[in-house]
Fold this sequence. Notes:
Elements: H1 3-17, E1 26-32, H2 38-42, H3 45-60, E2 66-71, E3 75-77, H4 89-95, H5 108-122, E4 129-135, H6 144-150, E5 155-162, E6 184-189, H7 197-204, H8 208-217, H9 225-234, H10 241-246
Parallel strand pairs: 1-2, 1-4, 4-5, 5-6
Antiparallel strand pairs: 2-3
Helix pairs in contact: 1-3, 1-7
Amino acid sequence: MATIDLQKKSVKIVLEKKNLAAVTARVGLVLDITGSMRTLYKNGTVQKVVERILAIASQFDDDGLLDVWVYDNEFSRLKPVTERDFDGYVDRIILEDELVHKFGRNDEPPVMKDVLRKYLEEEPSKDPVYIVFINDGGCKKSIKPIIESSAKHPVFWQFVGIGNGNFDFLKKLDTMEGRIVDNANFLHVAEIDKISDDQLYNALLNEFPSWLLEAKQKGIVSLDQEEQESSRESEPKRQGFWGKLFGR
């Protein structure tokens, strides 16, 4: 069985455990391509990350598309990756393309704004958006207002810190105030190539279910048809005048 099939199987088990099997969501991956990430691109680690997140997209997204961005002090919105063309994606689409800016310093806000532009302005949808944001440290604090302002939209940011960089700001995401819902989570994985698929998917999808539930309760994410019917059934029936008078 191909690796991607095993990863899809692992994702499916995690989704079932977390009651997410029936959820449809658009999935995006934002990859740090600053200078300190060079080795992870060259040795195939980032390619494996793309494949592992693609397995999530294949279960969440009807089209099985994984949208991809890379960023350093500039950013590129790349061609989406699918199961048909994931092999060698990082080499072909990123490393061998001279137009993709790479191995500079980090600047997160511009790419985050472009993520929101795509999903909220260019391609609005009733489906929630699940973003995996890979960073190897030193994330700018100026992302704070972007996270705060996007809390009212159906977008969940799952930040993943890899390596042993400075993640002090990202560690404070859960306690960030001033948001209608907690729309961001941080996961630190020192060696992402050594964590098992089951462990990775369990951790990546740890807070998404609670965000999704709260976002639906507050009208940020639309209820599906079954949920709408269930909600209507649970509403107390209004009594007419005579019903109230006689307690019926």
